[in-house]
Structures are given as C-alpha cells and as structure tokens.
C-alpha cells in the first residue's frame, strides 16, 4: 500500500466515525485538522511498507461527553488499515471549532443552510 492509498483510506475510515450526539461524521464536521502519514523504516527492503498516522483533531465542545468514545473509534478503525503500524490522535483546541468548519453536506444535514 502506498502513502497516498493510506491517506485515502484514513479519510474513508474517518467518514465512518460519528459523534453519537450529532448524526454527522467527524470528517464532515470539520473536527479533523491534520493528517500526517509517515512511512516507517522497514527491517528489510522486501517487507511491505508500514506507516504511522498522526492526527490533530478537536471536538465541537471542550467538554464533549462522547470524546472517549470518538477517540477509541478512530483509533480502532485506523489501526485496522493493513499498512498502518501506529495511530496517534492529538486533541487540540486551537483553533477553536465552529460551524464554518463543517462541509456543505454537514451544514445541510444539520439545517444550517
């Protein structure tokens, strides 16, 4: 699997992670600020490449009651990508999340348009 394919799979899987209180996935809510996929050093050149994923994300509110559930769901799903060695999810609150970060589809689904 290439780095690009891992990045595509990462976004695809993030679109399956939902805040249980909001019927929209974390990607379309704009909660994902950064995805950094890095190739790990292989033990031998013949081994398939493995990748580490670092994600910066936020929540719609600093005291989100579903935070642990969302983080665990992200971790489990991304670790399920065959070429992924580790997943590190960093929770950040700068910049502060706001509804303008949502995709057009999310805004429509939530009645903001």
Whole-number mean pLDDT: 92
Task: Give the proportion of residues in helices.
Answer: 25-40%
Q: Flag low-confidence runs.
A: none
Strand arrangement within the widest β-sheet reads 1-2-3
**Named CATH topology:** GMP Synthetase, Chain A, domain 3
Q: Radius of gyration from the CA trace?
A: 15 Å
Q: Please report the distance between the alpha carbons of the first and last residues.
A: 39 Å
- CATH class category: Alpha Beta
Could you describe the 3D structure shown?
- By secondary structure, the protein is α+β, with helices and mostly antiparallel strands.
- The chain has a single domain, classed as GMP Synthetase, Chain A, domain 3, CATH 3.30.300.
- Helices cover 27% and strands 20% of the residues.
- The protein is built from three helices and three strands.
- It has a three-stranded mixed β-sheet, covered by helices on one side.
- Strand 2, helix 2 and strand 3 form a beta-alpha-beta unit.
- The longest helix has 13 residues.
- The chain is elongated and about 50 Å long.
- The protein starts with a helix and ends with a helix.
- The model has no long low-confidence stretch (mean pLDDT 92).
Question: How would you concisely characterize the structure shown here?
Answer:
The chain is α+β, with helices and mostly antiparallel strands. It is 27% helix and 20% strand. It has a single domain (3-99), classed as 2-Layer Sandwich (GMP Synthetase, Chain A, domain 3).
Structural features:
GMP Synthetase, Chain A, domain 3; alpha+beta; 113 residues; 3 strands
